[in-house]
């Protein structure tokens, strides 16, 4: 048997806001609350469970999403429509551009809590 990632917790100051943000950008749906979590299911059966930090600051993490090439431009347009800057690099030094790594396209952007989100059309490894 191969182990598969099933879900991960994404810490947020406002779990509803953060879940709706990433769901909007990626074209996903926010599910009904599950206990203290607001879930957003990705296409590969992995769920992001947004959890509200009330006693500690949110520590920035990196989340990368493999997306269909034909939907990449729609996601960039959604970022632009809500005024979120995207970058070609993880250090956020090349604003308004995408990269062309590994024969695909990619971009980085921050979510409302500063998590470094990434969309790519080709995986970095096979």
Distance from first to last alpha carbon: 19 Å
Rg, rounded, reads 15 Å
| SS elements, strand count | 7
Q: What structural class results from the helix and strand content?
A: alpha/beta
Q: What is the count of helical runs?
A: 2
Classify the beta-strand content into a percent band: 25-35%
Q: N-to-C SSE series?
A: EHEEEHEEE
Q: Mean of residue pLDDT?
A: 96
Binned, the helix content reads 10-25%
Query: How would the global form be characterised?
Result: globular
Strand order of the largest sheet: 4-7-6-5
The largest sheet, given as strand count, sense and whether it forms a barrel, is: 4 strands, mixed
Enumerate the spans where pLDDT stays under 50 for 5 or more consecutive residues: none
How would you sum up this structure, described in words?
The structure is a single chain. The protein is 20% helix and 27% strand. The chain has helices at 15-26, 69-81; strands spanning 7-12, 37-41, 47-52, 62-66, 86-87, 106-110, 116-120. The strands form two sheets. The chain has a four-stranded mixed β-sheet, with helices on one face. β2 and β3 form a beta hairpin. The chain is globular.
